[in-house]
């Protein structure tokens, strides 16, 4: 059986970086992937300005407690106009352009306004105090976002603050989703004897949408080689990737492998992981292919561990990071046979002693999907590890946003 990391490495080596781009307005670009480095066309701040409501001062004019004349006012968007006489200060508001010659701004809380309109100060500021300098945040020509970054609700306002109206993004990946098996019934239809609902297509589609993909639902294919080949040809013509669930295990519908090999180049792997041993990867013409196991938990885990990073690369999302892993102490014993990397569903939290602890959420069968609702992480047990006793250290992999 192929180790998980080896399978993922082989996949990512074959997958290309995207080249197709589209120019979008900022309001339409949420969660898209930036297709080029973005350089700032301006300095931020664009001018020296005040960080406080108070008084712009020149240090040579100051003596503690000495009243000074107010020469005028400066507001945000309305700079001080006129001559700034020696021995005077300028009343200034937050964000206002500072008058030429300003050494500091004194907070209004540290000022006393006298009946004659003059003002005195309880302390002398340091040079540069409460001043925001031109280009202090961003300098003109700085790279503010790199190619491959996601345009988040933080990134897009940053671009708007630079006066940018549009941004170049990579085109969305189109993914055809296909379920296989005579036993499957669409959600909402009455079940017949021996039938089950097709939840895999629904699960995969939800995760794909969170990854920014355009989903094409091809429904459920019966175990019929002719129908299978026809649907695959149609999907190949419409999608950048095809994802199937079911029909990749040994002994399942022999025509699956025959049809796929007829239409393209497919590698069938046995991955040394649990759940999710059977997995297929390859290419049909210009369309990439991933075949997931049929069991609901296995389908989700193989998608999460193998397809998710593949989609990130095809989408151009170069800043995508693998789910975070942390050491934790298990509060319960865990069953495990050596031989495969095991992803058990768990729930972690920080206990009263500040330790990260984790517990299993119940039975770990690949058909038992309900445990995911109670989980917030995978308990990752190494290939050669056996049973784990309560109190032992384990590694947890915290669910990222596609399982949130």
From TrEMBL:
What pathway is this protein a component of? Cofactor biosynthesis; molybdopterin biosynthesis
| CC cofactor | Mg(2+)
Mind telling me which SMART domains this protein's record contains? MoCF_biosynth (SM00852)
Q: Name one GO molecular function term.
A: metal ion binding
Cite the MoaB/Mog domain residue spans from the record: 176-313
A Gene Ontology biological process noted in the UniProt record is: Mo-molybdopterin cofactor biosynthetic process
Q: Name one Pfam family in it.
A: MoeA_N
Return the similarity comment.
Answer: Belongs to the MoeA family.
Q: What is this protein called?
A: Molybdopterin molybdenumtransferase
């Amino acid at each position: 059986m192929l180790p998980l990391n080896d399978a993922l490495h082989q996949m990512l080596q074959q997958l290309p970086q995207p080249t197709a781009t589209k120019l979008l307005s900022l309001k339409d670009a949420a969660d898209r992937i930036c297709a080029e480095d973005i350089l700032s066309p301006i300095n931020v701040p664009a001018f020296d300005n005040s960080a406080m409501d108070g008084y712009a001062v020149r240090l040579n004019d100051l003596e503690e407690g000495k009243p000074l004349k107010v020469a005028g006012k400066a507001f945000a968007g309305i700079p001080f106009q006129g001559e700034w006489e020696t021995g005077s200060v300028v009343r200034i508001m937050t964000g206002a352009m500072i008058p030429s010659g300003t050494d500091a701004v004194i907070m209004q809380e540290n000022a006393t306004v006298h009946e004659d309109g003059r003002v005195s100060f309880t302390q002398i500021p340091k040079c540069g105090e409460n001043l925001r300098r031109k280009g202090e945040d961003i300098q003109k020509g700085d790279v503010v976002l790199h190619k491959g970054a996601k345009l988040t609700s933080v990134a897009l306002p940053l671009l708007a603050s630079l006066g940018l109206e549009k941004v170049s993004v990579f085109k969305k990946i189109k993914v055809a989703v296909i379920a296989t098996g005579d036993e499957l019934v669409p959600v909402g239809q009455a079940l017949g004897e021996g039938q089950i609902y097709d939840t895999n297509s629904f699960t995969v589609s939800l995760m794909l949408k969170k990854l920014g993909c355009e989903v094409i639902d091809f429904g459920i294919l019966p175990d019929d080689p002719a129908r299978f080949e026809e649907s695959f040809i149609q999907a190949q013509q419409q999608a950048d990737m095809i994802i199937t669930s079911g029909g990749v295990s040994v002994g399942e519908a022999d025509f699956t492998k025959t049809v796929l090999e007829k239409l393209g180049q497919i590698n069938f792997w046995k991955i040394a992981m649990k759940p999710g041993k059977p997995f297929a990867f390859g290419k049909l013409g210009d369309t990439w292919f991933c075949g997931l196991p049929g069991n609901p938990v296995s389908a989700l885990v193989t998608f999460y561990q193998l397809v998710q990073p593949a989609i990130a690369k095809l989408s151009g999302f170069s800043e995508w990071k693998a789910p975070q892993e942390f050491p934790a102490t298990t509060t319960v014993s865990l069953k495990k046979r050596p031989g495969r990397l095991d992803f058990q569903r768990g729930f972690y939290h920080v206990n009263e002693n500040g330790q990260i602890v984790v517990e299993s959420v119940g039975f770990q069968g690949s058909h038992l999907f309900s445990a995911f609702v109670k989980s917030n992480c995978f308990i990752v047990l190494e290939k050669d590890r056996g049973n784990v006793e309560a109190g032992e250290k384990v590694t947890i992999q915290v669910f990222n946003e596609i399982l949130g």
